[in-house]
Amino acid sequence: MLPGLVRALRGQTYPIQRAVGVDTGSRDRSGVALAELIGPDCVFGMERDASFGEAVSAALDHPAARTGGPSGIEWIWLLHDDCEPAPDALERLLRAASRDRTIGVVGPKVLDLSRRHVLRETGVTIDRAGRRVTGIETGEIDQGQHDGNRGVLAVGSAGMLIRRDAWERTGGFDQNLTMFRDDVDFCWRVHAAGYRVQVVTDAIVYHRELAGRYVREVPGGQPRRLDRRNALYLLAVNLPFLAALRILGGCVAGSLLRAGYFLITKQTSRATDHLAAVGGVLGNPGMLWRARRRRAKRMRHGYAAVRGYLPRGRTLARLAEAAAGLITTGPPRQAGGHQATGEADDEQFTDEQSMVRRALANHAVQLTAVLAVVTLVAERRLLASGILGGGSLVPAWSGATSLWREYLAGFHASGIGSSASAPPYLAAIALFASVLAGKTWLAVDVLLLGCVPLAGLTAYLAARRVTASVTARIIGAASYALLPVATGAIAAGRLGTAVAFALLPLIGLTAARMVTAGPSRPAVARRAAWGTGLLVAVGAAFVPLLWPLAAVMAVACAGWSLASRRWPAVTALTVSPLDAAVVAVAPLLILMPWSFALLRAPGDFLQEAGIQRTGLSDGALPARDLLLLSPGGPGLPPAWVTAGFAVAVVALLLPVGRRGVRVAGWMVALAGFAAAAAVSRMTVAAGGARVGAWPGAELAIAAAGLVLATLPAFEWLTALASRGGGRRLGAVVALGAAASAPLLAGGYWLARGVQGPVQPVSSGVLPAFVAASSSGQDRPRTLVLRPSGSMLSYSVIREADPSLGAPELPPPASAASGLDRAVATLAAANGDDEGNPGQALGGYGIKWVLLPGPVDGTLAQRLNGTAGLIPVSTSPAYDLWRVTGTVARLRVDEPGGAVVALPSGDVSAGPVTAPAAGGTVVLAEPSGGWTATLNGHALTSVIVGGWEQGFMLPAGGGTLVVAHHETGRHLLVVAELVALLAVCVLALPGKRPEAAAMADTGSREPATAVDLAPWDPTRRAPVPRRAIAASGSHRAARHGRRGAPRRGAAERRGNGAGEDEL
Amino acid sequence: VTRRLIAFAAVLVVLGAIFGAMQLAGPAAVAPAAAVSHPEAVTSVTRACPPAAPGSGQARVAVTSVPSQGASGGDVTLTPLAGGGAAAGGKPAAPVSVSAPGQTSLVTAPSSASATAVVASGAMAQGLAAEQATSAGLSTLRCADPASDLWFAGTGQAVGGTDIRLYLMNTDNLAASVSVTIMTDSGTVQTNADSSITVAPDQTVEQSLTSVVHGSEVIGLNVHSSVGRVAAAVWESGTWLPETSAPSASSVIPGLSAASSAARLFIVVPGSVNAQVKVVALTPQGRFMPFGATPVSAPAGAASEFTLSSLGVGAAAIELTSNVPITGAVLVPGAGLGAVTAAVPPLDEQGVVAGNPIGGRGATGVLLSAPNGQARVSISTVPAGTSNTVTVPAGHTVTAPVKAPGGRHGSYAIVVTPLAGSGPVYAARVVTTSAGLTGQVASILPVASALTSIELPPVRGSYAAIQP
After folding, report:
1. Chain A partners within 8 Å of B172 (Cβ)
2. Nearest-CA distance from A751 to chain B in Å?
3. Has this prediction a pTM greater than 0.80?
4. What is the pLDDT of residues A927-982, one digit of tens each?
5. A:B CB pairs within 8 Å
6. Are the CB atoms for B265 and B311 separated by under 8 Å?
7. Is beta strand A21-24 parallel, antiparallel or unpaired with respect to A43-46?
8. Could you tell me if A849 and A826 are in contact, meaning their C-beta atoms sit under 8 angstroms apart?
9. Model ipTM?
């Protein structure tokens, strides 16, 4: 390199007066070469760890630099060994510099040394996180688009021309910055000293930037850490104190966030770098203070001189770019990381296809789009305005925030009140709703109504791992997505099954990865086991039975694996018992404390997200329907539409190969059928009744197994059909028969639409004025009565109609039985003989009794004649009564018999002033878990009426506070979160070593298709595999181009400034 | 190929096994929610007795309770419902308390001028009967249940009802807002625009209806409270009208005693559709249609009168079946105006009549009618005397004389208990002024159920209440 530099120096059109070379301990012949080229007097050596700044200072102190020259303004031109100025660079720099006396520093336009049309920088600045910003995109070709001399915050030190007095006034480069940001820091101080910094774009310097790409060794050996530390240091010492505190605070928080992210993604060294950088700067306040003092002494202009050069909002912009990169799967755009301009020779050609066009060409996207259209047309009835409800589904009236609160709270202020642990699917919905701007109803709509296209997408992705034949994937995925299970789940509002249905292929995908990793890659298998456990846990949150099913299957796999090791005749399978245990135990950990409640009441395994009702399942489901994948209940096509699945059985007779896949598929299918048969003969509790359990998820498993078992046959038939000849007809007929299942099911669905109880609900049952009164300080509740046959159903509503999840929280038995009796007395013919039913309701904090229309006349008559109830309103929509007397959530029963209502919140109450007479404080909530203090002293807890929480209130009055213990629940939630995060970390793929990543330049997709091979080590079926590789080859070529830079980018992200991109 | 065939066969076998197992297992044990009502002991009963009838001096209340086996404790408290303008000057009368389950007490009301609230609790509330009684202990009126919709039917102002008074009593601690609809043979009486009467808590309101129904031959009253509950009593020239059951398509009026050939049937038809009423008499000989097979027509929004002369002399009950809800009563001539019996619900669990005098010349008996299916009842007394079982054939009315226990003076209670397996039975207690139950009627009292427990209907806390 050096000769090029020296040649360029010699060729300068403006003569250089003196040149000094510094050899910072080169190991090759550089020093000698330099001496040979510019003269031994002007070259001296320094220690290897000397910084660029030290080297420049030493060089300026060198006698060769001091020997006199013409008086006047003296200029210093800094060059690196890896740069090469254009012949007229110095002349143009000087000409520009001499035009204006305030200029202290000028810098050239920097182009790449090896590819001389590629622009590197035209002046640099930093954003508020200390990152270098050049405003130039990766690989941007210089077409003069950034030309024009202008003031900048800083210029790079390669080719930097400095006025000698500016150098001396600022004191040169900061010795604390050995590399990175030294130039920015220097120029900042030049600004502060009252000079200006300019870039001169017609002066050109070619630069290789070896250090920036880590080709050159960095002192200390940790370039990322150094880069980050220097960025923080630069901000810390140069900004005014308050601004420094503010911006630095943000940077430190950002660094900690990133460190957390890297820890989660198992990139510990990068996390350490971030933490060490923060520690390195903040841990050395003395150094910062001295550096600030030095700058303060020389400062002439304040922050204002520099502020205009600092771009705002860069962090958000980068985040947005990163997100866009994730979505597009194309190469991430990187504006302005000059260290990030690595390889990517042909990056300017990668964008030949727009993102949209690429996506549209994707078969998975096409299939999903078609299914989405089918779904939307079939669900035309449900697309009216209103929130979906009916069947199993409770309308999601509340937003994500209250759903989160519902999940996190230890006490649920709904109905009579419940301290049961909330089902974890609420957290999943709340999380999804948070992403959708807090719209829970939208989350429910997407998951329930969109389960068909979602399942199509996941099934296609899963099928991609098994077969390379697009036809086979599409038939398989569409058959799965349009199963009667899906249409039945939508029609009955079974949100749980809908989610599990879309999730099952993904569970299968991770499970397949676990099973096929083989003995040679135990780490991959373990990660896949954790991933399977995680997905099973998510699925089990919606359909709990998935957990025991997955556990049984995992254990069966482990058993099979042991057997195959013992007896060679058994098809080989390698699943370590530990991995099986991971799959079985992970849901227990992630779903606690709910999972423990499930284990205590195993009957609840048959429940699913949502409420159980009569009429949503068929307790006498014919065996024939079940084997035809029809789960019974509303909204199902005739059982024969899925007859096409019989091809799976016939396919057993075809000489297809891929025995491992088919055995696995049939095992899953038969297990699914057996489970479905068992479930269909069991019952679950549904509000006093016992209704048949719905074998939806189990049939979905069976169908998934059938599809998996048939995929090789599809592939084989597709190949046969394309070959021609007499067999072609047979193959086409077989494929057509297989495709009949999705076509018939889809057609039937399109024609009939969704036939079931689910429907848009436009408004709640609670009249607006009652709802308004219910959120008043007395928090009165409403009792809703609805006779159905001989049975009277009732429900207690607080501020608004119960939202998703609330009706599933059981109240304590003592409270419920008491209210049962009170309501029965209300409705009984001679109910007044049981005392005052109105008063009994008042004890439950119930102020309103609502009979929704069409109003039952007999009951209304009875309520009219009931003591303690006053008719308030009669209308076609509802009849309403008010309970007489003092009704409040929190009241004091005074010794004299007077009842005093106290204001309360929806859970806790107070501080309020307690009446002086004392008595009993009664909170109309189930007892247990409550505390009350009067003037800070705890009150004795008593149980009132067998269920209510009461406290003995001494006379004298004072400030009363009532609250619920939440610590236990919060600890459990934190434990659950920790378990979830731990499982996530264990399931996520670790970062591969960079060397391995660089070596892997091949395409990814065919590689994954081949991954299945170890599944069946006894018969490797080489022919199909080769066919896969060949069929994927043109794709591989495209991917190679697209993939390689991306990989490079990922790697680069680890380097220098680029790493700040998340 | 062999291997493939084996796999094929294995899959078919397993699928077949699943199919077979499902067939063998049969359908799942699906069960609807248990819609069974369950009994609950009565714990608290409130009745309201009107003030002493004009000119009858001291008001007395006959009280008895016939609790279920083993129940004890509790008491009955009689509290004056001060009001009616009589409270002026006098100090509030103190409540009277009785605690004697299984006995009959004749209690002097704390204040004759005002109505009396009878509040029973505990065992005393079970099987409670409280009646307005004469000084001899003969009950004339069952004390009223507070309710929101009450019905009465009686003779009009022109035919004996020269003085008609309505007593409205409020036993609750909430003011009741009451409207009274009056129907006569000439239609619904149009009263002032705002006819709402407010009855303050623990107060009685007395209203004279004589002028309102001037010239009427028959009256029907509907007392309706839009807010709160109210108990009501109607007095007509020396006779209390028993409360008649709410209008329905089918009702039974028991207790037409032997001297009923001149009985008058009153039918009240609320609403706007004329009623076609089928009138069937249940006699000791069986069913008899006093007006022939064709239904009689009763105008809507009015009270009508039919004379039951064709019935002849003999015990009977009247069964009314109509196309629209109606209610009715029968005036049996007797001492003074006579005695009125009204439509009542069938006996449930047991019927108790507290006020029956021991001694005297008259006879006491119970008229039992079974419109649908044979009924078997046991008739006993409190304090315990003779007890006998009576069988009533379907469609018949049976007269069962009751022998008073012991020979002391005072009063006793009659308990009518339908036996297990009995059809619906309607009962009325009849007291005559002369020996034998065929003599002149002194009092007819339809027997009302006195429950020791009530049936609580099946309820369930369910989201189905919000979204069916």
Report:
1. 867-868
2. 27
3. no
4. 888 999 998 899 999 998 888 999 999 888 889 999 998 888 899 999 999 999 99
5. 214
6. no
7. parallel
8. yes
9. 0.84
Closest CA of chain B from A796, distance in Å:
8
Tokens of A439: 């719209």
Q: How far is A560 from chain B (nearest CA, A)?
A: 17
Question: Three-state DSSP class for B303?
Answer: strand
What is the separation of C-alpha A135 from the centre of its chain, rounded to a whole number of angstroms? 30
Residue A210 is predicted with a pLDDT of 56
The C-alpha atoms of residue A88 and residue A95 are separated, in whole angstroms, by 11
A693 in contact with chain B, both atoms CB, cutoff 8 A: yes
d(C-alpha A749, C-alpha B253), whole Å: 61
CA-based nearest distance B204→chain A, Å? 17
Mean pLDDT, all residues of chain A: 81
Q: Which of A833, A863, A869, A881 should we substitute to test contact with B (largest number of B Cβ atoms within 10 Å)?
A: A833
Q: Are the CB atoms for A365 and A477 separated by under 8 Å?
A: no
Helix (H) or strand (E) holding B63: strand B60-65
CA atoms lying within 13 Å on the CB side of residue A299: 17
Of B451, B464, B465, the CB nearest to A830: B451
A870–B228 C-beta distance less than 8 A: yes
Tell me: the pLDDT tens digits for A632-644? 888 899 888 988 8
Question: Distance (Å) from the C-alpha of residue A682 to the closest C-alpha of chain B?
Answer: 5
Residue by residue, what is the 3-state secondary structure of B315-326? CEEEEEEEEEEE
User: How many helices (H) and strands (E) would you count in chain A?
Assistant: 40, 29
Which residues on chain B are in Cβ contact (under 8 Å) with A616?
none
Long-range contacts: B248-251, Cβ < 8 Å, 24+? B248/B325, B248/B326, B248/B327, B249/B321, B249/B322, B249/B323, B249/B324, B249/B325, B249/B326, B250/B319, B250/B320, B250/B321, B250/B322, B251/B319, B251/B320, B251/B326, B251/B327, B251/B328, B251/B343
Distance CA B164, CA B157 (A): 8
Residue pLDDT, tens place only, B146-173: 888 899 999 988 888 888 999 999 988 8
Suggest the residue from A663, A791, A846 to mutate for an interface test with chain B (most B CBs closer than 10 A).
A791
Here the tokens at position A4 are 């090029």
Name the residue type at position B139: S
Query: Which amino acid type is present at position A1017?
Result: P
A670: chain B residues, CB-CB within 8 Å: 11, 14-15, 18
